[in-house]
What we know:
Blueprint: H1 2-27, H2 35-38, H3 44-56, H4 59-75, H5 78-95, H6 97-119, H7 121-129, H8 136-149, H9 154-171, H10 176-193, H11 198-214, H12 220-227, H13 232-247, E1 249-250, H14 253-262, H15 293-320, H16 334-344, H17 347-368, H18 374-386, H19 389-408, H20 410-418, H21 427-442, H22 445-466, H23 471-495, H24 500-509, H25 513-540, H26 545-563, E2 565-566
Antiparallel strand pairs: 1-2
Helix pairs in contact: 1-4, 3-4, 4-5, 4-19, 5-19, 6-9, 6-17, 6-18, 7-9, 7-15, 8-9, 8-10, 8-13, 9-10, 9-24, 10-13, 10-23, 10-24, 10-25, 11-12, 11-16, 11-22, 12-23, 13-25, 13-26, 15-16, 15-17, 17-18, 19-24, 20-21, 21-22, 21-23, 21-25, 22-23, 23-25, 25-26
Amino acid sequence: MLQKRRRAFVALFVVVAALAWITSAQDGGDTTVQAPEAGWLTLLPPVLAILVALVFRQVVPALFGGIWVGAWIVYGDPFTGLLRTIDKYAVEALADPDRAKIVLFTLLLGGMVGVISKSGGTRGLVQSIAPYATNSRRGQVVTWLLGVAVFFDDYANTLLVGNTMRPVTDKLRISREKLAYIVDSTAAPVASIALISTWIGYEVSLIGQSLEEMGRTEEPYAIFLQSLPYNFYPVLALVFGIMIATTRRDFGPMLKAERRAASGKVLADGAVPLADFEGKSLAAVEGKPLRWINAAVPVGLVLVVAFVALWFTGRANLVADGNPAGTAGLFSLGLEGLGSVFSAGASYNALMYASIAGSASALILAVGQRIFPLGTGLAAWIDGMKSMMPAMVILILAWGIGNVCSDLQTANYLVAQLSDSLNPGYLPALVFFLAAVTAFATGTSWATMSILIPLAVPTAVGVSQSAGWDATSTHGIMLGAVSSVLAGAMFGDHCSPISDTTVLSSMASGCDHVDHVRTQLPYAVTVAVVALIVGYLPAGFGLSPWIGLLLGSAVLYALLRFVGRRGD
């Protein structure tokens, strides 16, 4: 079997190399290839990375190979492509300040988790939650509830919930794949539809830009609020998650994983978790009390500091921009004003401040209780950060392949190929599909939104008006287009092994990355198909989105009852 895989890998590499060589030869070998010249080969880097990752279960070589092939196409020869893979795309992946802050925040949070584990806080938290999470069902429900509660940022949600609940779900014999799925299917969906979160400012700014270019006077935040009922995929993903948790029914690869976990194996044979906090260096100190407060206080402080920092940085940024919401009183802001404040907040800075506060509090608590000396605590902190390094390598390479796709204009090529013929009624469904394909290929939902919202909103209005639809119907199509971009981007993100949020979910849950993608994919596709059939298509022709949400929930429950099986 291994030899067959090696032969297949060699054959795949030869084909890819030949295609890349043909492209570079057409360009003359000495100039940068642009997307119109490369044509469908702009899809080659992400497709190669995804195929190699899924088939050969090797994520790092898959991503590196994808970047190299993309750089080869861009720069015209394999050697220059290899050099640019290292000195351009890998470096630029970290050159962006926001990405560097994400890496720093993640490493600091890993250090905090290392100290908590060493101090016995993790085991103490497990013991304190045990009376409530007494079985697999309750453990999954508690995980889902925590995922919904940490609504203000998807990165913070993923890392906090995954790291906090991993020892609890291990004790309850819940597979790491199931934990990663619950974490991943709550983090971005709840952050994207929460009235106040780090996502909202980005979404509202894109909507506002599109409205301004069309000369329309609607408030962007009001459009966002009106579009919420049309967010079929995020809402149904949350609903499906709690259904699976409460019924304990699964299907596909997840059912196999849950049956394996019921026998005591939370990880598959040969699985390689992206982060490992169970090593001897982070084992709790013997003979010391296991106090839940040593875990709860640092985690709680991370949440509080992040929230407070978002508030103050948001107000400061609004004041600098001359926005009156920056100086208004708390109770006079209103919902839209609160959304403006948190949307304007420096989210990555807030997460860094929060992780530093969490790390410091974990050390102070442990040293103050004389569980271990400061030197031991710092060693545990460093070991915790070390455990994050494999995931950081994958995350940086995922960003690198995103930069390659940007240079090749992969997303623009997809948009041009898939949006030639539009009917107003089918527009929300078509936009959902286009956003999903784009996000899956590029591994980023935010870039997908930045490309498609400015295209989808004016297209929705223009096509509807050209077809003679009235103002009410045109407005509904516009709302459907806005939500379809967001939902489709999130669906593609959930399915893509090169997505940063998927990588972070695997890392925080201590799950093999490929196993996470394989087990989550059938669930994400199921929700997407239901959302498409009973949500986006009917809504495009005037059906109330609330009816679509109710029908979608009913269909998902029926599917789970008839197709799903219990894993125990």
